[in-house]
Amino acid sequence: MASLELLGFGSTGWGALLILAALMTLAVTATALAIGAVLGAIVAAAKLSGNSFLVALGNVYTTVFRGVPELLIIYLIYFGGSSAVTSIGKAMGYEGFLGLPSFAAGALAVGIISGAYQAEVFRGAFLAISKGELEAASAIGMHRGLRFRRIIMPQVLRLAIPGLGNVWQLSLKDSALISVTGLAELMRTSQVAAGSTRQYFLFFIAGGCLYLILTSLSDRIFNGAERRANRSMPASAMGQA
Description:
It is found in: Cell inner membrane; Cell membrane. The chain is mainly alpha-helical. The protein is built from ten helices and no strands.
């Protein structure tokens, strides 16, 4: 009973802190996914551009950030970034150490990793679009901006939903690695609670259950979004013009 009381929501319980930590995990993952979406879209466009230099840059990005361990990237962004900011501060006359905020560094690191995977998701979704639709749009005189807005973007987003769901799950689990920066996300809070109470089994199981709840709910959300997108499949751009 004493162990279970530790998971309560009173003044001596850790339950509320674990719930807040789970919300922090969701916040950092959502921020990372947004950063990754921007980077992924840029890299996908580069790889689809046909320009050999841009294609090479895109390939380097996806190869490096999908091949290097995630923890190493987090270390590089957090500690390397803090060192860089400190050096800039010293050059401007500021003495002392300047550290990057844990949330910003963690979200940026996971976002960069996420971007490498999202780039391939977006590229694959674009290649799955019927070439006939794009050729027909060009034939009736659609300019590139209208073609992108009416045909490409809606279909890429629809086709990318399953892949983005996988990337979200990957980023959600990668967020546990941000605990090395001291951010009070779910993994870090579970570690602190376990070390403070010596109830390692209890709190690591509790943390694992919360991760499982988050991933299960995420699966339901993305599956629902996929079903809805397929039901409301956008009409041909020519029909909308």
